[in-house]
Amino acid sequence: MSTESGKRRRKADGSPTRAQDPEGTKRNILEIASEEFALNGLSGARVDEIAARTRSSKRMIYYYFGDKEGLYLSALENAYRLVREGEAKLDIEGLPPIAALSRLVEFTFDHHHRHEEFIRMVMIENIHHGQYLDRSEMIRDLNVTAIDHIARIYARGVREGFFREGIDPVELHWQVSALCFFNVSNRATFSKIFGRDFGAEDQLERLRCNSVEMVVRFVTRSENLGE
């Protein structure tokens, strides 16, 4: 059997692998699978099509991910991982609370705009009533870190006298997510109904600024709003 780099081999148990970079192959599968699931949903996506678009085979996909539902759950976990990793990289600990919260909203808006497949996969998972997400301890852990992040910003703002008391960090996260999510999930229908391109650069910039202002005004004490 040839050992040439990149050619497919078989393990002793008959399962396929790659001579090099199995993690790269898995990342490639997840990237393409995310696109397919976001476009066609869990029932409409085809493993044959995913295999055809990747440097893998259907057998290899099943080896790595078990079955189609396992692949879907892994793609969903990867989508959440990407957004949470982006949040973790934000350099906002040294910023004043209002600036830190503003930066978090800006990041969320920009991430959702650049990763529309994440929004579509979340919409699909809601169609399934969160039943696959419920199987994932990873996603629960990832979202705990998201709440911890926004809770620290909010607590610091309250402590320093900028933010009003009594806001639940989970509900604050809900409001941020809602504003940024709707920008992607309902862009097409709003554009058609109101005859305005909500995906245009100038429109997106206004929506981004409005989202930041709405969240900041929601949490900031009235005497700190500068009015």
UniProtKB/TrEMBL annotation:
DNA-binding region: 46-65
InterPro entries for this protein: Homeodomain-like_sf, HTH-type_TetR-like_transc_reg, HTH_TetR, NicS_C, Tet_transcr_reg_TetR-rel_C_sf
HTH tetR-type domain sequence ranges: 23-83
Chain spans, region Disordered: 1-27
MF-aspect GO terms: DNA binding
PROSITE patterns, per database record: HTH_TETR_2 (PS50977)
Gene3D superfamilies the UniProt entry points to: Tetracycline Repressor, domain 2 (1.10.357.10)
Pfam families according to UniProt: TetR_C_29, TetR_N
Domain of life (superkingdom): Bacteria
Alphabetic keyword roster: DNA-binding
Name of the molecule in the record: TetR/AcrR family transcriptional regulator
Organism whose genome encodes this protein: Mesorhizobium zhangyense
Lineage, top ranks: Bacteria, Pseudomonadati, Pseudomonadota, Alphaproteobacteria, Hyphomicrobiales
